[in-house]
Design a protein that fits this description.
CATH architecture: 3-Layer(aba) Sandwich
Distance between the termini: 58 Å
Radius of gyration: 20 Å
Number of strands: 5
Mean pLDDT: 88
CATH superfamily: Glucose-6-phosphate isomerase like protein, domain 1
Structural class: alpha/beta
CATH class: Alpha Beta
Strand order of the largest sheet: 2-1-3-4-5
Number of helices: 7
Order of helices and strands: HHEHEHHEHEEH
Strand content: 5-15%
Number of domains: 1
Largest sheet: 5 strands, parallel
CATH topology: Rossmann fold
């Protein structure tokens, strides 16, 4: 077995020890499953509390600015790579189709787009120019001053996000970043107006926390927009 394979097995074993247990005692295995689940739930709860204490006021301020942009005709563009592309798509869905998130919801639909959704555009840009421009080029084509850019990365180091934020800032967009660890290179970007960092070294916990962050931003923004006089969505 290669060192890489051993490292992967070790990581999996630390996350799911019950899968590697020698015991055939079902009760013991189930107890390990229970303990593992409880530990992971505790980790994400504490991480969410940390983010709420540190960034709650900034989230409210950010949502106010997002609402003002939407009320003035602005649109939201969300982007990310891999699992973060899926989160970006979910952000766009939350804003564009709010009634789908909660039965009986009455939030107004707001214009939002996921920049990783169009496979033809994404693969054309990656193939013809390079993956580093895949989001910046789309913002260059579609974005206007007054729009909103939301980029997600677990590491905070994705080069195509950094380039997209620079493009968004040049175009007068409100820029919002979600990152993990210590924020990575995104924490060094002057082009990001609001950066929300999930301070964890676990990709699983980071993505779970980021889900909470953008859900809260959507709910706060929807509330703010509903109070804007004359805005009909």
């Amino acid at each position: 077995m290669s060192g890489r394979d051993e490292g992967g097995t070790s990581a999996m074993q630390s996350l799911y020890p019950f899968l590697y247990a020698d015991s055939s005692d079902l009760a013991a295995v189930l107890e390990q499953v229970r303990a593992s689940t409880v530990a992971k739930a505790g980790e994400i709860l504490e991480l969410r509390r940390t983010i709420a204490r540190r960034d709650g006021a900034r989230m409210a301020q950010c949502a106010q600015q997002m609402a003002a942009r939407f009320a003035a005709g602005g649109r939201l563009f969300a982007f990310g790579n891999g699992g973060s592309a899926t989160d970006a798509q979910q952000i766009a869905t939350l804003f564009l189709h709010p009634d789908g998130s909660r039965p009986g919801a009455t939030a107004r639909p707001l214009p939002a787009f996921g920049l990783a959704n169009d496979t033809s555009v994404v693969t054309a840009l990656c193939n013809d120019i390079g993956v580093e421009v895949v989001f910046a080029r789309q913002l260059g084509a579609f974005a206007r001053p007054g729009d909103i850019a939301v980029g997600l990365s677990t590491s905070g180091n994705s080069g195509n996000l950094l380039r997209a934020f620079d493009e968004a800032s040049r175009r007068g967009m409100l820029t919002i970043g979600l990152a993990g660890y210590d924020g990575g290179k995104m924490a060094e970007q002057d082009s990001i107006d609001y950066l929300f960092v999930a301070p964890s070294a676990s990709i699983h916990r980071i993505q779970e926390a980021q889900t909470t962050i953008y859900q809260v931003l959507w709910e706060l923004t929807a509330q703010e927009v509903s109070h804007v006089p004359g805005h009909t969505g």
